[in-house]
Design goal:
Layout (H helix, E strand, L loop, with lengths): L2 H23 L5 H21 L5 H22 L6 H20 L6
Length: 110
Amino acid sequence: MSGIHILLALAIAAEVIATSALRASEQFTRLWPSVLVIIGYAIAFYLLSVAVRVIPTGIVYAVWSGLGIVLVALVGLFLGQKLDLAAVAGIGLILAGVLVINLFSATAGH
């Protein structure tokens, strides 16, 4: 994994943490979860801005948003949220798309 891919992975992790803290922020009425949301998204977008200097924006965004969706859904499962079959199938398709981009696309920054 190259340095730029590590930064993209960190951007994804920051976004997942921020998104996962949204519910706990209770519409930004609770201080610390709200701070976590703001800092997490700030880090995510900064790291995305670095990644798009090397990898095409569409590829970066597809990977960032796709893996973010999958990981947030997994975090939700650990928090007691349920997914029906259609949600699982859709998430599987998103994950498949991210894999196709990373394994087969010449523009993915390999």
